[in-house]
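At this stage, I put together a protein sequence along with its fold in token form, as given directly below:
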Amino acid sequence: MNKVKITVMRITTYPDLIKKYELPQVLPCPLKEGMEFISFNGEIPAGFCSNAWETLEPFVRALAKGEGHFYGEWMKNPYSALLSCNDGFRPVSFYLKIIE
């Protein structure tokens, strides 16, 4: 199985939506842009956000198996993916790629 590097590329925040809809957060998102995580055997990396993992897991597992070409000609590197977590208030964009 391949190792997959997960890099936090961008964190966006929508203060207007937070103010209007979200209850106060006890624990804000701990991720920071530039953070890197390594998935071994398609498993969640230590310290990685479990909510974000729900979105990324199928892609990480596919990359770990050597699969790629998601959605046809989507990515310049066909063995990578750019995805966002499912947090509508502060979505985080992640770049996934196979590493040796």
About this structure: The mean pLDDT is 93. The chain has two helices and four strands. The first helix runs from residue 15 to 21.
